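Hello forum,

I keep getting stuck at the same step: I have a sequence, I want structure tokens, and every attempt I make locally crashes halfway through. Rather than fight my setup again tonight, could one of you with a working pipeline run this one for me? It's a single chain of 50 residues.
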Amino acid sequence: MRLPKGVVALGLVSLTMDFSSEMIHSLLPVFLVTVLGASAMSVGPLCQYK
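Reply #2:
Ran it on my machine without issues. Output:
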């Protein structure tokens, strides 16, 4: 029994959204420090809440 095309499409969308969310969470501290000039002391507590 095959899954409907809509279910497969929603699964792929969910997979890509999860992947992009994980990428953003890992790159956010680098962006805050290098681009916005935030200090490491201020970024540390922000990155503890995920």
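The chain is about 80% helix and 0% strand. If your local run keeps crashing, start a new thread with the error log.
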